Amino acid sequence: MSKVGFSVQVLLVSNLEQSQAFYRDVLGCDVTDFWAVRDDFALGFKLMQADQAEDVKPNKPGRGQLIPWDTYAYVETHQELDQLYQQLKDKGAGIVQEPSTTEADWGSWKEFAIKDPDSYVIAFGSGKKD
Fold it and tell me: Quick check: 111 and 82 in contact, CB under 8 A?
């Protein structure tokens, strides 16, 4: 079977230049005309200009979900997650979910979430304590 090398999420945005600036300056992506990628495509987006702002439709919450996610990315450890949180906060990211930890039989899960200029929510999580 053929192997997929990476994937990107296509985001319809209301203002391409504003989104490019956010993904470059806040999220730390390498940004071209359409691409916004970070860490060798571990996190990747294709930003597409919407014809009308009302065409932009971030996800609605799922059943039992308080904060809807449009993208969910993983980091290796809780310490790396804390570092990423601080970096994004220092760059002015809109935090919509402060870091929180859930303890369960299977282990520890920690996550936080930010939103972009179109209210797409990008969540980050880690399942490994330091």
Answer: no
pLDDT for residue 130: 67
CA dihedral 47, 113, 85, 31 (to 10 degrees): 0
Q: Please state the domain count of the chain.
A: 1
Residue range of the domain that includes 89? 9-49+58-126
CATH number, residue 118 = 3.10.180.10
- pLDDT tens, position by position, 96-126: 999 999 888 877 899 999 999 999 999 999 9
Asked if 68 and 61 touch (Cβ cutoff 8 Å), the reply is yes
* Number of neighbouring beta carbons within 10 Å of residue 79: 14
